[in-house]
């Protein structure tokens, strides 16, 4: 399995017990749908390694307590701390309307109500407090906030996201 064919589920943040259980901080709005998993891919080095699960359950809000079949002691669990977990993209529930997965909109055209075609989405920047579309328009990069107030329509058929950007935002990038 390749990372490109998977989505990031979360990261092992600590051990939970002396029996090798670990706590995973999930990157999801719906942690409860991952309570009954049978396996995950763990990123070890440059490889995704399948790990089978004996038992997993929610622990507090968005932490998942996992008991892996292959991990039954603290030293083995220690080696997993900081490891990222992945699942195949095929397991993502389909979204509709204006909801979307970040990976799904890469390559979509962005249409602004005032300026028309303002470029192609090249990436999503989610490292700051405000998530941003990184849009390329003839070699110029535009940063457009990802916000329900700005996104007016996600059209999967035409691979287009329609937006109503704040006044002056597009001009700031294209007229500089």
From TrEMBL:
<feature type="domain" description="RimM N-terminal">
    <location>
        <begin position="9"/>
        <end position="88"/>
    </location>
</feature>
<dbReference type="Pfam" id="PF24986">
    <property type="entry name" value="PRC_RimM"/>
</dbReference>
<comment type="function">
    <text>An accessory protein needed during the final step in the assembly of 30S ribosomal subunit, possibly for assembly of the head region. Essential for efficient processing of 16S rRNA. May be needed both before and after RbfA during the maturation of 16S rRNA. It has affinity for free ribosomal 30S subunits but not for 70S ribosomes.</text>
</comment>
<keyword id="KW-0690">Ribosome biogenesis</keyword>
<comment type="subunit">
    <text>Binds ribosomal protein uS19.</text>
</comment>
<dbReference type="GO" id="GO:0005840">
    <property type="term" value="C:ribosome"/>
</dbReference>
<dbReference type="Pfam" id="PF01782">
    <property type="entry name" value="RimM"/>
</dbReference>
<dbReference type="GO" id="GO:0042274">
    <property type="term" value="P:ribosomal small subunit biogenesis"/>
</dbReference>
<dbReference type="InterPro" id="IPR036976">
    <property type="entry name" value="RimM_N_sf"/>
</dbReference>
<dbReference type="GO" id="GO:0006364">
    <property type="term" value="P:rRNA processing"/>
</dbReference>
<keyword id="KW-0143">Chaperone</keyword>
<dbReference type="InterPro" id="IPR011033">
    <property type="entry name" value="PRC_barrel-like_sf"/>
</dbReference>
<dbReference type="InterPro" id="IPR009000">
    <property type="entry name" value="Transl_B-barrel_sf"/>
</dbReference>
<keyword id="KW-0698">rRNA processing</keyword>
<feature type="domain" description="Ribosome maturation factor RimM PRC barrel">
    <location>
        <begin position="103"/>
        <end position="169"/>
    </location>
</feature>
<dbReference type="GO" id="GO:0005737">
    <property type="term" value="C:cytoplasm"/>
</dbReference>
<dbReference type="InterPro" id="IPR002676">
    <property type="entry name" value="RimM_N"/>
</dbReference>
<keyword id="KW-0963">Cytoplasm</keyword>
<dbReference type="InterPro" id="IPR056792">
    <property type="entry name" value="PRC_RimM"/>
</dbReference>
<protein>
    <recommendedName>
        <fullName>Ribosome maturation factor RimM</fullName>
    </recommendedName>
</protein>
<comment type="similarity">
    <text>Belongs to the RimM family.</text>
</comment>
<dbReference type="InterPro" id="IPR011961">
    <property type="entry name" value="RimM"/>
</dbReference>
<dbReference type="GO" id="GO:0043022">
    <property type="term" value="F:ribosome binding"/>
</dbReference>
């Amino acid at each position: 399995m390749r990372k490109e064919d998977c989505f990031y589920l979360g990261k092992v943040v600590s051990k939970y017990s002396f029996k090798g259980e670990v706590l995973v901080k999930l990157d999801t709005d719906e942690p409860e749908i991952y309570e009954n998993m049978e396996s995950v891919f763990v990123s070890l080095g440059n490889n995704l390694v399948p790990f089978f699960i004996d038992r997993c359950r929610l622990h507090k809000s968005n932490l998942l307590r996992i008991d892996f079949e292959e991990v039954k002691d603290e030293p083995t669990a220690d080696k997993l701390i900081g490891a990222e977990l992945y699942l195949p993209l095929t397991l993502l529930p389909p979204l509709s309307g204006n909801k979307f997965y970040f990976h799904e909109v890469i390559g979509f055209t962005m249409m602004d109500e005032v300026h028309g075609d303002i470029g192609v989405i090249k990436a999503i920047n989610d490292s700051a407090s405000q998530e941003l579309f990184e849009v390329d328009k003839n070699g110029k990069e535009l940063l457009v906030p990802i916000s329900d107030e700005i996104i007016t329509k996600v059209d999967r058929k035409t691979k287009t996201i329609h937006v109503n950007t704040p006044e002056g935002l597009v001009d700031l990038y294209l007229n500089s």
